[in-house]
Write a structure and sequence with these properties.
Layout lengths: L10 E7 L2 E7 L1 E4 L4 H9 L1 E5 L6 H11 L3 E4 L3 E6 L4 E4 L5 E5 L2 E6 L5 E8 L3 E2 L2 E5 H6 L3 H9 L2 E2 L16 E2 L2 E3 L5 E3 L14 H18 L13 E5 L3 E5 L2 E2 L1 E11 L4
Length: 265
């Protein structure tokens, strides 16, 4: 397992799978108050922030330090605890969740959250190493027909989770690769994607989604691993990078906060 790079050593580690290169990330470690953290995040898509108290409130502080007046929306933080946890596969954080609070529709998650902050609150006795991937580079390396599918085919991004309390009844239609009005690329990864209802190309779409999953599963074991210390905050460009973690024994806990910046639209 690779440990974190020292400050000043931001780098992308080239992990190889048969027939093509794939960029796995080992984020640089930067003090949360250092203005260089924003530069590292912009350049590489990931940075590990240090020096903040290991409490949930530090996520909001980290967001303010990173984005300043560019910060637009903070969604409610969530704490995730697991005991003898299984692997969390590569994914980008996104969810479409609007709740009714005293008669007022209130958004608690957004399909296009453009950054995610993950603080390690409790380290597992063994295992639990993190990994991250430059999803733009990865999908650009896929066979042409699969790249075309990801960029040109509408799917129901959360259809596999239909019936989950709080999800909207209206399908969330989108493509795996899209662009914002400002030209920023989004490369999505969710295990909730299914063909649209009564899609005439359902068989084709299902087959391509399966191929996409197989390609992701193929690259995941090759990625370099890095470890977080308790209190470290992994900040990710959620449009560009996917992340996950290895299985672990014992208890492990993280605090997670997703957000949107002025560049999300």
């Amino acid at each position: 397992m690779l440990r974190r790079t020292r400050r000043g050593g931001a780098r992308a580690v080239l992990a190889r799978v048969p027939d093509r290169p794939v960029t796995g990330l080992v984020p640089e470690q930067v003090d949360a108050t250092d203005p260089a953290a924003r530069r590292v995040l912009t350049e590489t898509g990931a940075v590990v922030l240090t020096g903040l108290p290991a409490v949930p409130d530090s996520l909001a502080v980290a967001a303010a330090l990173l984005f300043g007046t560019g910060l637009r929306e903070l969604y409610p933080h969530r704490t995730r605890r697991s005991v003898d946890g299984a692997v969390v596969p590569l994914h980008a954080d996104s969810f479409d969740l609007v709740v009714d609070l005293a008669g007022t529709p209130t958004r608690r998650r957004h399909p296009d959250e453009d950054h995610v902050l993950v603080m390690l609150a409790r380290q597992a006795p063994t295992g639990g190493g993190s990994f991250a991937l430059d999803a733009h580079a990865f999908t650009d390396s896929l066979p042409q027909d699969l790249r075309t599918f990801l960029a040109a085919t509408d799917v129901d991004l959360y259809g596999r989770w239909a019936g989950t309390r709080g999800l909207p009844a209206t399908p969330r239609v989108g493509r795996h690769i899209e662009y914002t009005r400002g030209g920023r690329r989004i490369t999505r990864r969710t295990d909730g994607a299914v063909p649209l209802h009564r899609d005439p190309d359902t068989e084709y779409t299902t087959a391509m989604l399966s191929r996409f999953t197989a390609e992701v599963d193929r690259v995941q074991p090759t990625l370099p691993r890095f470890t977080l210390a308790e209190g470290d905050v992994l900040a990710l460009d959620n449009y560009r990078c996917w992340h996950g973690r290895d299985p672990h024994t014992g208890e492990r806990a993280t605090h997670i906060q997703t957000l949107r910046t002025a560049d999300a639209g």
